Request: fold
Amino acid sequence: MKIAEIDINKSILTKINSTELTERNIELYIKRDDLIHPEISGNKWRKLKYNIDLCVTNKQDGIITFGGAYSNHLVATAAACATIKMKSIGIVRGDELNSNSNETLKKCTGYDMELVFVSREIYKRRYEKSYHEYLHSIYPNCHLVEEGGANYYGMIGCQEIVKELALDFDAIFVAQGTTTTSCGLAMGLNNEQKLYVVPALKGFDSHSEMKQLFRRSGFEADFIDEMLMKTVVLDDFHFGGYGKYNSELLEFIQDVYSTHQLKLDPIYTGKAFFAMMEQIKNGKLDNSTIVFIHTGGLQGAQSVMNKSKFNFWKEN
Ligand SMILES: *Cc1c(COP(=O)(O)O)cnc(C)c1O
Reply:
């Protein structure tokens, strides 16, 4: 299957204007990583970029990675590998599934990803060295990328987002899943700048998860503490948990689209944008310059839109 080129230069900076922002002396910019590619959505490409570079440099045959039945990361990996004619192997949680179980998995297969359906028991071993060795023995000369692209190379790819911002800003906002994107962003900030993270999962301990990822990637305790000091966690905007949403959130997304022509998804970016607007409303960000990182995710949002009574992306 042929797909259009991935283009980082498409990730432009757009400005949001409103009377409230002007009154509060806030400048709000959106970093449009959602424009990089329709399928290899925003941060998923950022996280894959250096993993793929490594494969090419080391002349490896492909990538082995992990994901659940609805993983955008799996689709992004499959699509990215297909563009450069590299093998991709997806270890999928759930041995009751098959490659026709849903649109996500069908897409993966469409991009020639080899899907391996494993039991939840086996999937739990996804960080174990012995399991990795086993996978390498079956798929020799393949590079293993952690679930959600959560590794050192993924973080470094996300750090570049900050480097591209030719702008003096005070705060950056981002939605959080595995924390890879937020860890990379934290690495790009100076000590005066704040990173606001909005986990999409309920009961998620952002600081502890970030710490684990930094540790697993070989960073020292002092450095990790410095990164966490810059990070403000807004963990009250999950709307019930991962993949959950209510009409307030959908209405908000519709409103943002009709006012600013900006599309957000109800899983990640909609929640993060909602959290940011709450901070603004409460006067927590007066007199500052803010950048919201649009991490993409619009592909999956379409099905939610179709099922809801809202038609939030309808032009009006
Ligand atoms: C996957 C995803 C995230 C989560 O990013 P992490 O690096 O896993 O924290 C955020 N936003 C969107 C749109 C995503 O698809």
Remarks:
- The chain has a mean pLDDT of 93.
